[in-house]
What does this fold into?
Amino acid sequence: MNNNSTNILDIKNIEVTYDDVILALHDVSLKVPKGKVVALLGANGAGKSTTLKAVSTMLASERGKVTKGSIDYDGSSIQKQNPSQMVGLGMVQVLEGRRCFGHLTVEENIISGAYSRKLSKGDIDQELEKIYSYFLRLKERRKSQAAFTSGGEQQMIAVARAMMAKPKMLLLDEPTMGLAPQLVAEIFNIVRELNQKEGVSILLAEQNTNIALKNSDYGYIIETGKVMLEGSAESLLNNDKVKELYLGISKKGRKNFRDVLKEESLNKRSN
Amino acid sequence: MIDELLFFMEVLVGGLLAGTMYSLVALGFVLIFKASATFNFSQGAMVFFSVLAFCGFMQDFNIPFVLAFILAALLMVIVGLCTERLVLRPLMNASEDTVLMATIGLGYVLEGLAQAAWGVEVRRLDLGIGDFPVPWIADNLKLFISALDITAGLVAAIMIIGLFLLFKYTKIGLGLRAVADDAGAASSIGIPLKHIMLLVWSAAGVVALVAGMMWGARAGVQFALVDLALKALPVLIIGGFSSIPGAIVGGLIIGATEKILEVYIGPFFGGAIEGWAPYVLAIFFLLYRPEGLFGEKIIRRV
It folds into this structure.
């Protein structure tokens, strides 16, 4: 037990298999320092969601398993935990696709996030007010049925609901999927604000490389279940290969890191 | 003319009240459908099991009525607990179809256990409420309405109000509604599915006990109760599988229409249309309003 370590999350060389046959992650290692925002970048199917679910232990409900490596959260292994225990330990995942409770009102959705905490009615109201101070839009719509709110509002509900569990760490899975640029910026502002004012550490899976890196401290790029590149957000933003492959400033038609590596090894051989 | 109208009223009220007996059975299905999106085929067996246990406690051990009821209710909570632990938890990540099949198996287990423990003969259950017209109503309103029907109506009303309050205003009720909407998202924010499952199976067990007592008092406590629970199917199709008010209204509609059709249209078919008329009604609902009257509409933003 090492609670003084500066990393709230430490993933070491994990391998994940679905249905005992499909290898989804080969060798992923990553660290999230306490109080920081770390971006996990990559295309569809790269293994971002799988990594997050391995951390929140929600893999089991999709017949996935961590078959190698270790995941330490807040100084201890998460191996034997289940999702509701992880929430109790302060680790909450905001699932891909928002997943609001459509038939519940906006406010009921948010309150449901406090399920794992033992709060009195007064405490809940107090917490609600605090949450609404970050999500002003939601306060106006508190009585609406969640299914009838907009995509951006649903994403806010999902994050607000997770914040109601008083997390030390949030796992955000593609929070900006399918949202207009303006809303993307709004969501990221809120995420950043939550990180700074509430001190929540954040691991963020995104395809939206540019804005994700601009709002993170550190980044990892994964492809086909492997970490290909890591570095501070700034260094990644200025990295030529990242620019080319993920920020759309492309030349030579190379599509991913594997192509780059192949090319480099070819060059070496010809030299 | 007045006599005809009175007769119609009598048929209608009798039908509505008999319908509440269907509602009671349907309620048990709704509870479990809400939480696990599965039609619980063992609900009929739960009705049989619980009421047979109740009779057993009362008649074989001479336990007084109230205590026997409490014991039987506790037994159903234990059944819920075992079901959650032994059937649902191992199947946590299995498909809904698998769970459906498991409930069929569970039904056989409960039927077998009930008969092994309490014997196979038909038992008479006397609740102290007669299945005959209440004299006061017969004298003053000229309607012949059974006291048992009225009791069933009252009991159903109390249970509905109780369940409604439970779901709308308690924490575990909020948890249940969250699980009903999206079980994965509910578990991602730390709502423990096993508590919710335990709650609904226990509640469904107690509802089964009450329904069984009403039906047992009318028709005797016997194996036929298992099949009778299938009468809840058209009720659910009409009311909506996931709606508690739907179960009630569906039951009332089935009760009233089957009696009215039997009395007024039945003779043209040679009678006994009560048995299948509800299913015809259900087919019309499936064609024109598949989510039922109160079923939660599948909300899609466009």
In short: Chain A has one domain: 7-238. The mean pLDDT of chain A is 89.
